[in-house]
Amino acid sequence: MNPPADHPAVPQRRIGVLLVNLGTPDAPDASSVRRYLRDFLSDPRVVEIPRLIWQPILHGLILPTRPKKSAHAYAQVWRPDGSPLAAITRAQAAALAGAFGPDVIVDHAMRYGRPAIGDRIRALVAAGCDRILLAPLYPQYSAATTATANDRAFATLAAMRFQPAIRTLPPYFDHPDHIAALKAGIEGALAALDFVPEAIVASFHGMPERTLRLGDPYHCQCQKTARLLGEALGRELIVTFQSRFGRAKWLEPSTDVTLAALPGRGIRKVAIVAPGFAADCLETLEELAIRGRDGFLAAGGEKFAYLPCLNDSGAGIEMLKKLLGAELEGWRAGL
Questions:
Q1: Is the dihedral angle over the CA atoms 329, 97, 186, 223 positive or is it negative?
Q2: Rounded to whole angstroms, how far apart are CA atoms 193 and 304?
Q3: Do 20 and 149 form a contact (C-beta atoms < 8 A)?
Q4: What is the pTM of this model?
Q5: pLDDT digits (tens, 9 = 90+) for 227-252
Q6: For residues 274 and 323, what is the distance between their CA atoms, to the nearest angstrom?
Q7: Cβ(230)–Cβ(154) under 8 Å?
Q8: How distant, in Å, are the alpha carbons of 110, 128, 135, 288 from that of 86?
Q9: CA 300 to CA 107: how far, in whole Å?
C-alpha cells in the first residue's frame, strides 16, 4: 500500500553497527587534553568517589596540572591522521564497511570526545537503521569501559521518541576467534624480531582493586584471556596491570614494577603485549612501548619489544567480522 501523498519520506530499512572505543583528545595540546580529561574523569563509572569529594580534587588539583604532562605524552604518539586510537577505530569501521551486506551500515564513535555516541546513533537512525548493534571494543567487561559506553547510548535512546531495537556485543575475552587472532598477531610479530624473548608480559589496563570486591568481572576475565592465550602460544605469560592513577590500591602486579624487576631475575629479553586493547593508543604506544622500554633497559634489560594490538590487521578484522556477524544473525534475515 502506498503512503498518503503528504506522508513524510520513509528511508529504506537498514541495520547499524556502532563500534565504540574509549576516546581521545582532539589534539595533543593542553587545552584539548583538559577538555577530554574533564569529561573522562567526571564519569562516575570511571571514578567511583562521591562527587562532593571528587570534583574539588579534579578541578583543583588534576585539571590544572595533568593536561600539560598528558599532552606531551600524546605528542609522542600522534599520527598525521590524528590520535592513534581515533585513526585505528576509524580504519576498523572502514574495513568492515560492506562486510555484512549493503543494508548494514558500520560506523564508529567514542565514549569521550568525538565522534560522540549520541551523534552517531542519531545519524544511523536518520539513515534508516531501526536496529543497531552497539559494539564496545573491550574484550574484557568492566563497568568503567563497557558499561559506561552502553550507558551513554541508552541515555541517547531515552531522549528519542522513536527508539531503534538495540543489541550489545558481549565481552569476548575467551572467544576462540579472539584468542586465535591474538595468537596469529603475536606469532607474526615475534617472527619479525631480531631476538627471542625470554618472557612475554601480558599487560592489561589496571582498575582499582575495590572494583573486584564490588563484583566487577574484569580481573577474572583478564586472567582467563592470558591463560587461554598462553596455552595457544605454548608458553606461560606474565600477567600485569598498568596505568595506576590516584592513591587507591590497584590490581597487581604493576607492569612498570614488574618490568623493572625482570632483569634482576635474569630475564633480559622481553616482549610485551596488551590483549585488553582492541586498538593501540596512548596507554600502549607511550606507556608501554616508550616508558616501559625505558624502565626495563634502565634496570639492566637488553632487548625489549612491544607487540602491537590487533588494530585493523587482517586477523583483527576477520575476528570482528565473525563476532559481529554472529550478533547480527536473525536481524539480517529480516530485511
A1: negative
A2: 10
A3: yes
A4: 0.94
A5: 999 999 999 999 999 999 878 899 99
A6: 20
A7: no
A8: 8, 25, 15, 19
A9: 45
